[in-house]
Structure formats: C-alpha cells, structure tokens
Amino acid sequence: MHPYKAAEQFLRTHHIRDCTITVALSGGADSVCLLYCLLHVQKEMGLHIGAIHVQHGLRGEESRRDERFCRTLCEKWGVPLTVVPVDVQGWRRTHGGSVETAARECRYAAFAAHGGYIATAHTASDQFETMLFRLVRGSGLRGLCGIPPIREQYLRPLLTVSREEVEAFLREKALPFVTDSTNSEETYTRSYLRQRVIPLLHRVNPAAVQTAAQTAEILREEEDLLAQAAASAYADALQADGSLTGLAALHPALQRRCIRQFLTCHGLPAGLTQTEAVRALLRTGGRLALREQWVCVSHGTVFLQNMQNDAPQTVLHLGKNRIFSDVFVEASLILRSETEKFASVYNLFTDSVLDYDIIKEYATLHSRVPGLRMQPAGRTHHVSVKKWMNACVPPAKREKIHFLSDAQGLLWVEGLGVAAHAAVTPRTERMLLLRVSTA
C-alpha cells in the first residue's frame, strides 16, 4: 500500500485527529518515511507532529551520525525533536538479557516517559518477521497476531506497507535516510530471518509479506472473540474464595486462558510451560510449585496454598542443599564433553541423574506434600506418590524423602527416580546428579 494512503487510512480508521503525535525517529528509511507521511496529512487531520530520537550509543560514531542526521532533518522540516540518551549496557548489567532486549526496554522506557501518542515505523515486513520469530520460538494465538496497529499509546500507521514500498517511496521523493550497519549482520535472530529465511519464503510466495499482514488481521479478530469467551468462562468458574471450578469441562483453549488469567492475577509466571503443567493437573490432581506458592488441583478445583508455612523447601543450587537437619542433597553438574565421567555417572546413578537443561526457571527441593503424581522414566503411566510410598517406603522414612520440582511439576523423587520428561537423552548436554548423604 502507498505510504500516504496507509497513514491517512490508519488515522481515519482509528479516529485519531486533533492531537499531538510524536514519531520515534531513528533516521532509518522506515521512520523517515513515517515522519514525512504524517507531516503530509497533519493539517487535514489537525495534528501536531514532533519526533523523539533515542540515542542507544551502541555503535560509536555511527550512533552519533544518526543523531546528527535526525537533528538536521527535523530542523529542516520544522519538527520539534527530543533526543534521549539511554544506558543499554547498564540495563543489561542490572537485568541481564541480550543487547536487543536491553535496547528495546530502554527505548520504550524513554517513549513512556515522553508520554502522549508515539508513532513507530513498524511495517508489514516487520510484521512478517515478528510472526515468524514467535512461531519458531513458540507462541499461542495472541503472539501469532503479531504487532497490533495500536497498543496503549503506540501507533503503527505503516503496518500495511512493505519495506520495499517504503524504499520505493523514498526514492520517488528523493528523501535522505541513514542505514544501521547491524541490520545486515546475521548475529541477531531477526536479522537472520530477514537476510536468510524470508528471501526463501518469497520464492514460494512473492506476496508472503502481504499474506502475513492479512493473516495477522484475521488472527487478531479471532483472538478478540476467544478473549471474550474466556473472560465469560473465567467469571463463571471463579468462586468466592478465589478458586476456579469446572475447568475440566471447558475446551482446551478456554482452559489455557482461564489458567493463565488465574496465575497472572496472583502474580505467578503464566507462560506456556506453567499453563500446560496446571492443565495436566486437571486430569491427575496434585500440586505445582511456582515461586512461594503451590498451585493445587483437587477434584477439578484450582486453588493456591502458601509454601512458607508448608513443607520444608529450598531452591536447589549446585553443592550441598539441606531441608532436613541430619541429611543433605548434593547437586553436581556433569558436562557431556567430559565423556568418560558422563557415561560412568549415568550408568552408576541412573535413578538420580536428570537433564539439567530442561529445568524451567529454577528447581525447588522440598519434602512430601499431598496429591503429588509423577510418570517415572521408563514407565508409561503416572504413579501416585502416596501409594508408592505406602507400598515401598517404611513409615519412619516417609517424612524425610526428598522431592525436586520445577514449573513443569515433579522432576525427581528420592527412591522413585527421575520423571520421564526430565530423563537424560542422547541430546542432553548437561546432566544434574543428585546424591543424598548423611550430615
């Protein structure tokens, strides 16, 4: 779609007029195109147009060149410009994560502090990249909807325009722009998709970008409908004491959304891993350790129990771990690169070694709690921990059996072995060995 037409249609469709819009201006082709298009329609729509340039400082002189370019361009076009320097590396030292993630967080923090409508120059090509990125990383329907046209204060007027159409427009108008040299590097996932994967998909369908944009719009509409149905189902399931009942009778899609909302409302992690683990408990019953809470399912009812006054427990770390006074669990990490040691430990301690890399978030070492079930490695069915203990463990020892759980559920039970999903496989690179010793 022609950028002029896209910007005007966006503003009219979303009834945005007689207001101030600040363009997120990097100096690149997309943001220059967006600024030019909004200036073109500002009088007709009663807009006041400004710009904000976030100086990440990651590319040395090239970053300073981009800032100079934005200052010169805005002075020439009569656009008020705000330049905000941010400390990306400082953010990473505090929070961790990739440079991409840190830069994005700093950028959006600057936008939020600026306030008002912020127009970002995301295009249909960015939409396609986002959908692919989320698809290969794993995503539900909401993630596959891609970038929304409007989210909170953020506007995306060029979301129906491809990158090729932007570049053609800039050539037609002889508009200057700068190029980020890291865009051509393949070290970042998005750059790799842009440089290697998307050109191959264009061979299959030259209109792939436009098709993805249409698909995203359809998915957003269906997401809206499903969200409404889930809100109604959640309201019906919610009890006066805060528990949920009747989820087992719902469609799996509604189960996931109701569980996700339940976890989110209580400040607990609500990713796909946690959601599916709670869904599994609808069939079997039991408990799931999430932070300082037990997410419990009993007879189809989902509720929380506080760990603090419950069974002894601690977050597992490498070395000695103690939840009982007279015994401890020693956790050791063995790498596959240590070939002989890896094979020897696995053969000697099969029931006490697990795949370290499958642990979600962190693992909790804890004592016996009611309702636990696990499918041990080598078995085809779940085992009731209570029945196993009654049959195999002397009464005097039952209260000092060690259990290891993460966000997916039980990983290991002392004497029963490792859970099937946590077992060491030929793909395991790091193996966790657990040994119980007398203090």
Which tags fit this structure?
20 strands; alpha+beta; Chorismate Mutase Domain, subunit A; Phenylalanyl-tRNA Synthetase, Chain B, domain 3; 3 domains; 5-stranded antiparallel sheet; about 45% helix; about 450 residues; 14 helices; 6-stranded mixed sheet; single chain; Rossmann fold
What does this structure look like?
With 439 residues, this protein is an alpha+beta fold. The chain is built from 14 helices and 20 strands. The protein folds into three domains: 3-219, Rossmann fold; 238-306, Chorismate Mutase Domain, subunit A, CATH 1.20.59; 313-438, Phenylalanyl-trna Synthetase, Chain B, domain 3 (Phenylalanyl-tRNA Synthetase, Chain B, domain 3, 3-Layer(bba) Sandwich), CATH 3.50.40.10. The chain has helices at residues 3-13, 29-45, 61-77, 88-95, 99-114, 124-137, 141-144, 163-173, 189-204, 208-237, 252-265, 272-284, 339-348, 385-392; strands at 20-24, 48-55, 81-85, 117-119, 150-151, 154-155, 286-290, 293-298, 301-306, 313-315, 319-324, 327-335, 353-355, 364-366, 373-374, 383-384, 403-406, 409-413, 417-418, 430-438. The strands form five sheets. The protein has a six-stranded mixed beta sheet with strand order 3-2-1-4-6-5, sandwiched between helices. β2 (48-55), α3 (61-77) and β3 (81-85) form a beta-alpha-beta unit. α6 packs across α9, α6 (124-137) packs across α10 (208-237) and α11 (252-265) packs across α12. The longest helix has 30 residues, at 208-237. It is elongated. The mean pLDDT is 89.
